[in-house]
Design a protein that fits this description.
The protein is α+β, with helices and mostly antiparallel strands. The chain has 8 helices and 7 strands; from the N terminus they run H-H-H-H-E-H-E-E-H-E-E-H-H-E-E. The protein has a 5-stranded mixed beta sheet. Strands 1-3 form a two-stranded antiparallel ribbon. A hairpin with a 4-residue loop joins strand 4 and strand 5. The protein is elongated and about 125 Å long.
Length: 315
């Protein structure tokens, strides 16, 4: 061992000796003797601190579990809404075929006209321009319908943005126009001159509109022709909300049915899934609005939903 190591050992021994003497002096003068009340208080504080740490850890786990449960519920709701949209499109297949067939039939007619003129000798090609322009318009119309259907059934995360509710209503009506015409229903859209934008997911709101419109169309099918009226009313409420009401002159519903309409798996249709109104209610409430229904005094029913213009419920 070198001299330096020897000196370090001596210093360690000296420090240890000083510490022992310091402890002996404390005991001799009673410096380590704390009052019994102080000892009890320190023990109580230590116990409470440990208890609080345990409670905080439990709360952290509960919050984490709740957030996971809410995320699972949200994903389940999105999947359910997607299935409902696909089911809706399947039920509307006949009307959609009619809607797409119109521009296709127009294209065929215009094309035949072009061929007929081309076969004639001495025909001015400039006369074909308006016809060809109409072909383009009808092709774009058909493409728009198909693209809109694709967007409607595509599974994706909700996306909220400033939305013109009037345009959403028009798109929804375009998808059921075939059913409205085939059932000889008189449609009337009434709206304020200028409506503010709403913060909404346009596809989800359109899903609600389609469900309410198709329910009204089904109800009107039970009414004799000539009395089938469907009104869509859009107005702005005083509490910074937009109201959309769909009113029909159908048979309405009973008080017993009224209480069950928004319940999952309840349907007045033999082949119905019973999810349309339940999903619609969830979508509207998730947007900060409300979905209500009532029987009209003159017969029929009115379903009304509200959407706040700022994405939250008005106060």
């Amino acid at each position: 061992m070198s001299t330096t190591d020897h000196e370090l050992d001596q210093l360690r021994e000296a420090v240890a000796l000083l510490q022992q003497e310091n402890e002996q002096l404390k005991r001799a003068h009673g410096l380590d003797q704390r009052e019994p009340q102080q000892q009890q208080m320190e023990a109580l504080v230590a116990g409470r601190t440990e208890e609080l740490q345990r409670i905080n850890e439990q709360l952290r786990r509960e919050i984490q579990d709740r957030e996971q449960a809410e995320e699972i519920a949200r994903q389940h709701q999105e999947r359910l809404a997607h299935v409902a949209r696909i089911n809706t499109v399947g039920e509307m297949a006949s009307g959609l075929a009619h809607e797409i067939n119109q521009p296709l039939a127009a294209i065929a007619t215009y094309t035949q006209g072009c061929l007929h003129r081309l076969r004639k000798t001495g025909n001015d090609p400039e006369k074909l321009v308006p016809i060809l322009e109409q072909i383009i318009v009808q092709a774009q119309r058909a493409a728009t319908i198909v693209q809109h259907l694709r967007n409607f059934v595509t599974k994706g995360k909700p996306h909220r943005e400033p939305t013109d509710i009037t345009q959403v209503v028009r798109r929804a009506v375009s998808l059921v126009r075939g059913e409205i015409l085939s059932n000889e229903i008189e449609l009337d859209i009434i709206q304020d001159a200028s409506l503010p934008l709403v913060i909404a997911d346009a596809i989800q709101v359109e899903q609600v509109l389609l469900n309410l419109l198709r329910n009204a169309i089904d109800a009107l099918a039970e009414i004799p022709e000539g009395r089938r009226e469907l009104k869509i009313m859009l107005d702005c409420c005083e509490n910074r909300e937009i109201s959309v009401a769909i009113s029909d002159t159908g048979p309405g519903f009973s008080d017993d049915t009224r209480d069950k309409l928004s319940s999952p798996f309840f349907s007045t249709k033999p082949e119905g899934m019973g999810l349309g109104l339940a999903i619609s209610t969830t979508i509207i409430e998730d947007h900060g609005g409300r979905l209500t229904h009532e029987v009209n005094d003159a017969g029929g029913a009115t379903f009304r939903f509200t959407l706040p213009t700022n994405g939250r419920r008005g106060t």
